[in-house]
From TrEMBL:
Keywords: Disulfide bond, Electron transport, Endoplasmic reticulum, FAD, Flavoprotein, Glycoprotein, Membrane, Oxidoreductase, Redox-active center, Signal, Transmembrane, Transmembrane helix, Transport. This is Endoplasmic reticulum oxidoreductin-1-like. Disulfide bonds join 60-65, 318-321. Belongs to the EROs family. Coiled coil: none annotated. It is found in: Endoplasmic reticulum membrane. GO terms for biological process: protein folding in endoplasmic reticulum. The chain holds residues 57 to 450 of 467 of the full protein. The lineage of its organism: Eukaryota, Viridiplantae, Streptophyta, Embryophyta, Tracheophyta. It is a peripheral membrane protein. FAD binds at residues 144, 146, 157, 185, 188, 218.
């Protein structure tokens, strides 16, 4: 297993071994503490799925489905009967009816003070439209198995890949387009890993645990999916370290001075770690992109593709999956904004403006990727051995 992942992570500047060591010893412990602070644990989100792509999608027409934890028996009969464009009535079962897919909203408006409301050119969501927003305590809503599957889920992934980053043979893709594909694939791996790490093993007994077969089937047996996970992690880490000065000076006030001081100290601990600065000072080199004559045109094209991917998150037919899908795509969009919107300014602190929600999404995304890396690093050898034996048996 380890032999597959040696040397430098493709398109990045650090090797697998160093990334695993830094993640396990430095980043994972800091991030785990940081995401529990009042500033980072609340996310403002529009959970009503306002799907622009399939206006006939039964799932997204079920407004009640996305705003209440409604048992199936409470659905209007017309919803249950409906069959839309190849989606069976089974696909229209409200995921929110399942306890594992339901979102627990904890309001803490006190903790949520406004920052800038500048829009992100890479993402579709306008979280400044306050009318339909809710605050979700991310700590109460872990990303894990929800039961969301079938053609509704498949349609989203297919659209993300085929419509937005077509799988041409890699030689035909220029570096920038390959990077968009790898970011999405890395995120997809991370979502699958979280499903495997916290799976509902026995519904009747409500027993949760790890599903290592799923980890192998969806991620480990495809080395490129593991590599893309490492790539995405380094890309997001680069964005965080590039914005270090901005993030250090940001306002983490939630009205609780003791907690807020701790948040600032944890942010510094994450940003200015000596080991990280020495062993992996440039996790990804964004200066190599958008060169040449086609640079600006390509950047605009990829921005448009990412905007579409962001809009697709409104079509995810499971509330908890939509929450984490939106958060993580906003996190990626924020990383893209940090890395590619310098507009010729030398001083990023002067030119960069981030929404509070973007900072929360960025750090929580890095934490999710960090958890995935740790899980793969720790379970990988066992999983490969287990599957090797299984494949060898008559
Ligand atoms: P899928 O994961 O749906 O994959 C579909 C196809 O994509 C695969 O057949 C393969 O060809 C390709 N593929 C798979 N992984 C990769 C990769 N890493 N790189 C490139 N190609 C790949 N379910 C939950 O239980 N909990 C969640 O929190 C959750 N969040 C979700 C968030 C979003 C945005 C979406 C779209 C879905 C989410 N789901 C979640 C559903 C989950 O991702 C799967 O779709 C579902 O479990 C069915 O899995 P599958 O085996 O059909 O393969």
């Amino acid at each position: 297993c380890t032999q597959k992942y040696i040397g430098t992570v493709e398109d990045c500047c650090c090797d697998y071994e160093t990334v695993d060591r830094l993640n396990g010893q430095v980043l994972y412990p800091s991030l785990q503490q940081l995401v529990k602070t009042p500033f980072f644990r609340y996310f403002k989100v529009k959970l009503w799925c306002d799907c622009p792509f399939w206006p006939d999608d039964g799932m997204c027409r079920l407004r009640d489905c996305s705003v209440c934890e409604c048992p199936e028996s409470e659905f209007p009969a017309s919803f249950k009967k409906a069959i839309y464009h190849g989606l069976s009535s089974e696909d229209l079962v409200c995921q929110e009816g399942k306890p594992q897919a339901a979102v627990d909203r904890t309001l803490d408006r006190k903790a949520f003070r406004e920052w800038t409301e500048i829009d992100n050119p890479w993402t579709h969501d306008d979280e400044t439209d306050n009318a339909e927003l809710t605050y979700v305590n991310l700590q109460l809503n872990p990303e894990r198995y929800t039961g969301y599957t079938g053609s509704s889920a498949r349609r989203i992934w297919d659209a993300v890949y085929s419509e937005n980053c077509p799988k041409y043979p890699s030689e035909e893709l220029c570096q920038e387009e390959r990077i968009l594909y790898k970011l999405i694939s890395g995120l997809h791996s991370s979502i699958s890993i979280h499903i495997a790490a916290e799976y509902l093993l026995d519904e009747a007994k409500n027993m949760w645990g790890q599903n290592l077969t799923l980890l192998y089937d969806r991620v480990m047996r495809y080395p490129d999916r593991v590599r893309n996970l490492y790539f995405t992690y380094l890309f997001v880490l680069r964005a965080v370290t590039k914005a270090a000065e901005y993030l250090e000076q940001a306002d983490y006030d939630t009205g609780n001075p003791t907690e807020d001081l701790r948040t600032v100290s944890l942010v510094r601990q994450l940003l200015y770690n000596e080991d990280l600065q020495t062993a992996c000072p440039l996790p990804f080199d964004e200066a190599k992109l958008w060169k040449g004559q086609r640079g600006p045109e390509l950047k605009q094209k990829i921005q448009g593709q990412f905007l579409n991917i962001s809009a697709l998150m409104d079509c995810v037919g499971c509330e908890k999956c939509r929450l984490w899908g939106k958060l993580q795509i906003l996190g990626l969009g924020t990383a893209l904004k940090i890395l590619f919107s310098d507009n010729g300014h030398q001083d990023l602190v002067q030119s960069l403006q981030l929404q509070r929600n973007e900072v929360i999404a960025l750090v929580n995304l890095l934490n999710r990727l960090s958890e995935s890396l740790k899980f793969v690093h720790e379970k990988g050898p066992t999983v490969e051995m287990m599957m090797g034996k299984q494949n060898a048996s008559p």
